[in-house]
UniProtKB/TrEMBL annotation:
Residues 92-345 form the AB hydrolase-1 domain. It holds the Pfam family Abhydrolase_1. GO terms for cellular component: chloroplast; chloroplast envelope; chloroplast thylakoid. InterPro entries: AB_hydrolase_1, AB_hydrolase_fold. GO terms for biological process: chlorophyll metabolic process. This is Alpha/beta-Hydrolases superfamily protein. GO terms for molecular function: chlorophyllase activity.
């Protein structure tokens, strides 16, 4: 099982050792819209010489609200308005986490964003403090539908979707299906190719592992085996080791991060969600959806991501987009792993905040 890792942001995939190392410098690629950003230090809390202020988990819990999706499922969400006067540059954003994560995975970004923008964050069904209904068949399409319904019923204004990993893919699907100005723009952080590994069959590494992945699918449908595996995966020491391999900045893999992942994994229905997601259909391929999106898109990609590596089919496709589509901007973040927003929030904010500020004038 060493060749597979289950993480808080993406389904089980091969470890970074199966991928080639990408050596990058501070250079410009593909005109001005694809850039490689060199890291200035190893600390995730350094931002322009200052400290990235994280929201306390207790505050997130106290300020979270519930929304009934389809009149049946309780969905947890968080909102923080800008304390400053609303300006033409102010935006409304919705943060969408990755596999196994939840709203607190954005704790290092909420304050920076909410200084000038209204920030919503949501726990997708099956994760965090949202319902994990028994027998529910989780799909990328259902999460995209949830996002659009949330915008229509709760946010009720044009919104920029910001997602990580499978959360990014859910945002891509939602944007491709939305009409009018409901979705104003997209920010994709290391976008996943699907809900699970079966989506990226074009990758030779996945082809080699496909028999093993299909065997794991079969084993996960055996309740006893699935329970034993899930219990091992959510063990805090194991989680910390897995996350250390996922993050470029090891200092940010702390007890708080482990608790963010382990806590919801110990709630009722978490095992069923885990099995359904890993054994279900991978969902729509982002490569087929992206050309349908005409809204502005910002893509940020950690170059140390072994889950969706730059030299894999999904990474290669996204790095080619700025040459093909004028509404795309992409920056590669050096020394950053699969979860840039928590790994190196300062580098994310350096690109994200100016992009949001200028969006109203484009």
């Amino acid at each position: 099982m060493r060749a597979l890792t289950w993480t808080a942001m993406s389904p089980p995939v091969m470890s970074r050792t199966a991928t080639s190392t990408v050596n990058l410098r501070r250079i410009s690629l593909r005109r001005d819209r694809v850039c490689v950003r060199a890291t200035a230090s190893s600390s995730a809390t350094v931002s322009g010489g200052g400290v990235v202020e994280a929201v306390e988990l207790a505050e997130i819990g106290e300020r979270s609200k519930k929304w009934k999706w389809k009149g049946e499922y309780s969905v947890n969400y968080f909102v923080k308005d800008s304390p400053e006067e609303v300006t033409p540059a102010s935006q409304t954003v919705l943060l969408v986490h990755g596999f196994g994560a939840s709203i607190p995975h954005w704790r290092r970004n909420i304050n920076a964003l909410s200084k000038n923008h209204t920030v919503y964050a949501i726990d997708l069904l099956g994760f965090g403090a949202s319902d994990k209904p028994p027998g529910f068949s989780y799909t990328m399409e259902s999460w995209a539908e949830l996002i659009l319904n949330f915008l229509e019923e709760v946010v009720q204004k044009p919104t920029i979707l910001i997602g990580n990993s499978v959360g990014s893919l859910a945002c891509v699907i939602a944007a491709s299906e939305s009409r009018g100005d409901l979705v104003k723009g997209l920010v994709l952080l290391n976008c996943a190719g699907g809900m699970n590994n079966k989506a990226v069959f074009d990758d030779w590494r996945i082809k080699l592992l496909m028999p093993l992945l299909l065997l794991i699918d079969f084993l996960l449908k055996q309740r006893g085996i699935a329970s034993a595996l899930f219990n091992r995966v959510k063990d805090r020491e194991n989680l910390k080791n897995i996350l250390t391999n996922v993050y470029g900045n090891k200092d940010n893999v702390d007890d708080t991060l482990v608790e963010i992942i382990a806590g919801p994994a110990n709630t009722e229905g978490a095992l069923d969600a885990f099995v359904s997601i890993l054994t279900g259909p991978p969902g729509p391929n982002p490569i087929k959806l992206i050309p349908e999106i005409t809204k502005p898109v910002l893509v940020l990609w950690g170059d140390q991501d072994g889950l969706t590596p730059l030299d894999g089919p999904v990474g290669k496709y996204f790095t080619s987009l700025p040459d093909q589509l004028p509404n795309f901007n992409l920056y590669v973040l050096q020394g950053v792993g699969h979860c840039p927003q928590d790994d190196r929030p300062d580098l994310v904010h350096e690109r994200l905040l100016p992009w949001l500020a200028q969006l109203s004038s484009t």
